[in-house]
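Box 3.1 A note on notation
Throughout this textbook, protein chains are presented in two layers. The first layer is the amino acid sequence; the second is a token string describing backbone geometry. Keep the layers aligned when reading.
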Amino acid sequence: MDESVSRPCKGVPMIRHHKAGLVLAALLGGMHALWTLLVAFGWAQLVMDFIFRLHFIKPVFEILPFQLATALMLVALTCLIGYVLGVCFAWLWNQLRR
């Protein structure tokens, strides 16, 4: 039996806390890493203005110049938040499926 799935209850598997945390950390951190690349290459303002206009919002925000320290903090913080959310989700899921 696969170790990532244990004690199925009525066909619904448990979710491992650490794996769920890593998945959400990678997702949120990865999205913000892509954002920092857009900022670094100077494309973030165009993307943000385009997205705002798709939502019928007049763009009023200005993207600041790229700073490596700020980019690293952004990615690290969002990875941490994603990990905590993933662990909390897995815990809640496992509690509710009992």
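Residues 17-96 form one domain. The chain has a mean pLDDT of 92.
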